[in-house]
Write a sequence for this structure.
């Protein structure tokens, strides 16, 4: 059974840091595109950090560049999102995602961390940034 389970979300003050984790089971992450997305109340889910499984390139949303970092540990079958210098506008439910086929089929040199590119999703973990 394919499963992604996030953890690490909590309430934090502005300027603080958090590291989200996402453990995969039922498949091996190391051949998959991976991504982190977030969704605030009343807003669409947006991609914030993704890694291609074609060339290993990473893309970040402009809103998180220089503050967030995506990584994976293949030995632990886990992906991470390190979040620094958190702002109130970072408050959202955060979701991890993985996909094997989309970029391998359609990649043409650039990827854009879009929801429709990913097949497998975690259930989400809540991050709240507030003083």
């Amino acid at each position: 059974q394919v499963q992604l389970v996030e953890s690490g979300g909590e309430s934090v003050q502005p300027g603080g840091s958090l590291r989200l984790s996402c453990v995969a089971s039922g498949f091996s992450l190391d051949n998959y595109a991976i991504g982190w997305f977030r969704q605030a109340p009343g807003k669409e889910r947006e991609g914030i950090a993704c890694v291609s499984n074609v060339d290993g390139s990473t893309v970040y949303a402009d809103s998180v560049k220089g503050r967030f970092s995506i990584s994976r540990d293949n030995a632990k079958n886990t992906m991470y999102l390190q979040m620094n210098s958190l702002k109130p506008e970072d408050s959202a439910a955060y979701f991890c995602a993985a996909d094997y086929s989309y970029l391998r089929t359609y990649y043409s040199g650039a990827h854009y961390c879009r929801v429709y590119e990913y097949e497998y999703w975690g259930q989400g973990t809540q991050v709240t940034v507030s003083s």
In short: Residues 9 and 127 are 5 Å apart (CA to CA). The mean pLDDT is 96.
